[in-house]
Amino acid sequence: xxxxxxxxxxxxxxxxxxxxxxxxxxxxxxxxxxxxxxxxxxxxxxxxxxxxxxxxxxxxxxxxxxxxxxxxxxxxxxxxxxxxxxxxxxxxxxxxxxxxxxxxxxxxxxxxxxxxxxxxxxxxxxxxxxxxxxxxxxxxxxxxxxxxxxxxxxxxxxxxxxxxxxxxxxxxxxxxxxx
Length: 179
Known about the structure:
Blueprint: E1 2-5, H1 7-13, E2 17-19, H2 25-35, H3 40-43, E3 44-46, E4 49-50, E5 55-58, E6 61-62, E7 78-82, E8 88-93, E9 101-106, H4 110-119, E10 123-125, E11 128-131, E12 134-146, E13 149-159, H5 163-177
Parallel strand pairs: 1-7
Antiparallel strand pairs: 1-2, 3-4, 5-6, 5-7, 8-9, 9-13, 10-11, 11-12, 12-13
Protein name: MoaD family protein
Pfam family, one: ThiS
Organism: Oceanithermus profundus
């Protein structure tokens, strides 16, 4: 069946869609995770429990109103996966006296920021990412909860001569990560 990926899911997989097999939505998602295990935390709250932040549609209908992960699917069906769409960059501030730019970014997970940094040529060394003439460090913060929606948050620091350029790049990636 055709599986369409949107926003950050598309960024991670580096494709707009995949052809995957499975008799149920859950089985198709298992095949997806075999190819892209880094999507596990975004798709599921716990084993077998679809995350409330993710929207999964079969032929345009939300699986939550069908049979959930047990919803039967066939080769002609289309599965659409939408990542969390709340959050985005809250903005970098800086530079401070040490030349460091800081931000709290919402709606982007640590694995996704790491994937962006890798794609942009950064290399991780001892908890810090080296990005040419800049460095990046980040850590998870407690999630922001609004009603039933939980969005991840990261504290991000960027320093070095090219810090502003990297802060802008990360801010743009975070806004994309948030939808």
